[in-house]
Amino acid sequence: MMSKVLVLHGPNLNLLGTREPEIYGHETLADINKELEKQAAQAGVDTEFMQSNHEGDLVDAIQQAASRGADFIILNAGAYTHYSIAIRDAIAAITVPVIEVHLSNVHTREEFRHKSVIAPVVMGQILGFGSDSYFAAMSVAIRKISARD
Ligand code: DQA
After folding, report:
1. Ligand 1 pocket: which residues have CB below 6 Å?
2. Does 82 participate in catalysis according to the annotation?
């Protein structure tokens, strides 16, 4: 069975490309997903992508990650990062490792973005590199998967 990375995008990330491009860049979510898919495929790793504006959908996807064959999760929880205890608890409840990703450097922005309630339950965080945050996260996931196999 091929290893798989599940990429989860939270609220408002469907608007990438037009959403505050000075902060989030000009690439669309489809552009980023396509690039991630290519990067993983080159390493023989399968990908699955999901974007939702709804907290419960993200909780469901995290809960179901293992049964859907995911070996790793790359998660940009968007604004839920800063206050969703439900998403934090879902991550804590599973054994699939999660990499937290942000396009922007949240620590240089508003105070309310400085706190990540999911940070204590993820494997690590990558932030502030625009879409390269996702590509760096994919690179980590691929390396961890191949070190394990
Ligand atoms: C974000 C940062 C969050 O604070 C914000 O609510 C987002 C995007 C990022 O990728 O930089 O929606 O997660």
Report:
1. 12, 76, 78-79, 81, 102-104, 106, 113
2. no
In angstroms, what is the span from residue 46 Cα to ligand 1's centroid? 25
* Domains of the chain with CATH codes: 4-148 (3.40.50.9100)
Which tokens is 103 given?
Answer: 């396009």
Residues in the chain: 149
Indicate yes or no: pTM above 0.85: yes
Phi-psi region of 51 (alpha: psi -120 to 50; beta: other; left: phi over 0): beta
Which of 74, 91, 79, 83 shows the shortest CA–CA distance to 133? 74
What are 46-96's pLDDT values in tens digits?
999 999 999 999 999 999 999 999 999 999 999 999 999 999 999 999 999
Catalytic residue list contains 80: no
Query: For 47-56, b where at least 16 C-beta lie within 10 A, e where not — what string?
Result: bbbebbeebe
127 CA distance to ligand 1 middle (Å) = 10
